[in-house]
Structures are given as C-alpha cells and as structure tokens.
Design brief:
Methyltransferase, Methionine Synthase (B12-binding Domains), Chain A, domain 1; five-stranded parallel β-sheet; 5 strands; about 60% helix; about 15% strand
Length: about 210
Amino acid sequence: MSTILEQIRGSVIEGNAKAAEAQVKQALDSGEKPDVVLNSALIPAMSEVGQKFEDGEYFVPEMLIAARAMQAGLKLLKPLLAASGAQPVGKVAIGTVKGDLHDIGKSLVAMMLEGAGFEIMDLGVDVTPEKFVAAVNQGANVVAMSALLTTTMPNMQNTIKALTDAGLRSKVHVMVGGAPVTEAYAKQIGADGYAPDASAAVRKAKELLAG
C-alpha cells in the first residue's frame, strides 16, 4: 500500500479530520483513484476502529471522532465516486423512530455504515413509518431503526407493518437497535436483524445483504 494511503488510514484511526482531508486531497492530486482511496484507506481504517471498539480499546467518543475524520475524507471522494458510477455496498435508510429524539447512537451507526461503503439516507429523528416506506420506494434495501425509549419501541413494529401494508417488506432488510432493544424483541416484531452497537450494525448489514 502506498505511504499516503497508510497515512490516511492512520489519521482516520487517530480521529484527525484535518489531516485525513488534506491527505485524501494529496492522494487524489497525485493520481490515486477515488475507489482505491475508499477501499484501501477509509474502509479498512473504519474496520479497524470497529475492531478496537469490540476489543474495548475504543469507546463511543473515539468512534465518533474517527467517524468524523473518515467523513472529512469521504466528502472529497463522494462526487468523484458518483461520477465514476461506483456502486455502494447497499443503500440504508436509517432513523430514530417516531416520538424519539435521540440522535447520537443513530448518527454513529450511520457514519460507521458509510465508512463501510454503504450509501446512507439519514432520515433523522422522530421518523414516521411513512417516511421509512418512502425511503424504500426511493431504493433503500436496508431499513435501520433506532429507539432509546421503551415507549417508542412499538413504532418499530408499526414501521414493519407499514412496509408490509405497502407491499415492500420482501424487498428490504430491517435492522433494529438502541439501548432498550434486544435480540428477542427484534424477533418478536419480525425484524431481520438486531445490533447492540455501531460496529455490530455494520457486520449485521453486510450479513443481511450477503443473504
């Protein structure tokens, strides 16, 4: 791997957004292809960050800082990747369900998924079932729902019902997560997958799309 790609990888892992952005620009200026920068520097860096989290070496703040550094580099690549027709791993519609205004966990999952090569449709917080349905109609093949309150968890089931009623349930993989959510609850409401944290969410999304 070229030195500049190693440097980008290191900057993302350390959470140095300014350096990551400058190094991505340098790599592109020196002729590196955008997809090579993505697949050989940004994605492996975020994969390593996820591993550090699972090993107890990194915690949520470190993951957030690294994800922001990754995004600083990715914003330079996005228009070039789109122009080259590069295909994302999958398209994820992500949001915190209706009635729930918690944002940090959902945003971290979105950033980690983006760092793994997924296209993200971030629907924000307090997302109605109808908005998730609209996102699937716009091409999302994964729906990722978050809830931080036990009182809003039923809206996960309401969203799955809305997808079924719209005739879209078989076209999309549904993942759920958030502090009060469990694997048992995910199964009970008919979700396809459950992830306890952002790193697990990336693994689960890849697993679901791999079939």
